[in-house]
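If you are new to this repository, start here. Below is one unmodified record pulled from the training split, so you can see the exact layout before writing a loader.
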Amino acid sequence: MSRLRRPGAIARPPTTGPRASADAADATRRHDPRLTVRALCLVLTGMAAALLVWGAQAVQAVYEARETRVAARTPVPAAPGTRPVAWWNQGDDSWRERVFSVVRVEPAVPSAPPPPGLPRWPEPGEAFVSPALLGLMPPAATRYGELAGTVAREGLADSGELFVYVRPPSGLRVQGYGTTLGISGFGAPGPATDPYFVSQSFDRPRSDLHALLACQLGLPVAVLLIVAARLGARQRDRRPAAYAIGAGRSGHARIALGECVRPLGAGALLAGVPLTALTLTGVRLPLTGYPVAAADLAPLRWQFPLALAGAWAILCLLFAALRPRVRPPGSGRPRAARSRAARSLPSAWPGVLCLTGGLAVVSGAATGQATGTRLFVLGAALVLAGLPPLLGRAAARACARLTVRGTGDAARLAGGRWAAARPAVFARACAALVVMLGPAAQALVMVTDLTDAARNATVLGRRLDDRLLEVRSAPADARAHARFVAALAPGDRVLRVVPGGDASGTGGPPVLVGDCGDLAALGALRSCPRERAVPAHEVYRQRTPRTEALRWMGFGPVHVRAAGSRAGSPATATAPQGPFVVLTSGPEGRERAERAALATLPLPHVAVPGDDDVVGGRARARQADWVLLLAAAGFLLLALTGAAGLLHAFLDGADALRPPAGYAGDVRFHLRVAWWAMGVPMVCALGLATVFTGLLAGVNLAFLSPSGGSPLGLLGGGLAVALAVCAAATVGGGLLAARCTHRWGKRGD
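And here is the target side for that same chain:
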């Protein structure tokens, strides 16, 4: 066999000199997978920046459109001395712990324009209901009278608002009461500083959403850009080092801009196109279910591309400013050499932070109340700040312990030693789970926690099961009261709360009046007080949910007195009257009482005792969905950032696998190395991060927020996403290392 055909021989003369060095450098750059990782990181940065810009502009546009429609339907009070064109009164109702506006309207002149969103004024006994309320509450089609139609989008703050326009039936009027407005039309000159409508009582200001966007999306964008600028800045390209002698700051800036312009532009374009399409179709946000109409996003069709171009330019400039400047060897000030013992000694600040934060967490949990909550939040922040470095060290040590045995496996030995020498890499990789999911879990527990009053009212409401109602109304005559009682079912029991004290009705607690049979429906009686009013605790043998409900009805402790006839009958109608207490006989009792009150009483209001506390607590708890929505996006971005840094660090040492790869000869060797170098340490680190984060949330749930939502779903989902991302990075690292590592062969020696 000739020398030219022998395996391993070179068939052409070797190239020497500068051309050979340039060719080798170009080939290395073309096949270096670290450049691909950096480019993907820049693409992800552009996509995240596009999402941040779109979110900020969408919040602004949606709120402006909402304020415009709300201002258009806000009534304008008639000037003193002028005749109103219509009468307007706002009430409220609730359904499944959600409160909404019930606006009663009545035209005073035939030519009065109807409210925005209505094609005409409702006839007596008719109602216009928002589409969202009809979908959420089927009884709304009949509760408020005959359904005349739905409220158009122009009359609603958004398409998901719960809203009702109703006109009382014949015989009942809107005018003549203290809460009724005589109006000259609709359309306030500007948006109100405070919520004017009950259905908007728990809406958050736009500044809250902007703050959430800045924390949950702005932070990941900044981290992505910094990581992309620092990834392999001194190894990935030799041109800055070669030009360092003759090139100034402008030369370095042009080099950095050339590296980031196309990846950042590609990422902005990939995310910008579908986001722009949403301005044409609208979108319903996940988790929250909030509908964003395409008409509200119309300004973004030209504003978003311009803002995205500006954000792309700013990101490019920031990348050029953040990229470290590569100096020639020997330049700069000489640094004092550190001893080997000092280099091997780990920093103590993470442990100090965690210990201090742990003491603050325990103290806050033991203290309780507002002071304990603040102390707990401070301690949790300190623990979460010091936890990632400790997790990185624990993962590195665990991997070193796992690879002590089985040294005959070259992949296990190489991967374990690589992981044991780089705890900081795993600290940065698992920081996403700690930095984003840790505060999100605490926010979920705290926001969904109910106040003491709301918790007690919730328990009471479950026991009452809508079978005890409080019915209030504007002042009415005895005939209206009698008609209301007659409209109830035969099995329903009716009591009445009347002012107590002397003949003038002052100087004593309110008195619950009813016949002995109706009073006994609240609980077992010791005796039936017929002659005088007696405190409730002396009348009933024991406390029951129904007797306890009397304390939640807004009139405080009551006395009890038996009447000779049923409450609301003509025999008792001449006495000073107050709210009704209705004990329904079946599951449909509340709906029947609502219809009876709307048909017979002026401006009625039907509620379950303690409903106001429950509605407020649940509205606050629903805000956690917005935190989770933005935290999910931010967590995914940070998890991808950590995976990119981990993958880049692994590929930095991939060239060291040349000799053993020459003996292994297949891709499975590189996959096993990646598993022991990245997979095993990250499983340990992420598992420990989830345990510690869940432990903090558990302390909060057990001592400070006993009725808060469980964070297990959030932590479990975050751990699953983080493991999936790390698994993809592990497989990708093994495949890229196998493909791009130059194998050392034994031929031609």
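Two things worth knowing about this chain: The CA atoms of residues 57 and 554 lie 44 Å apart. The two ends are 16 Å apart (CA to CA).
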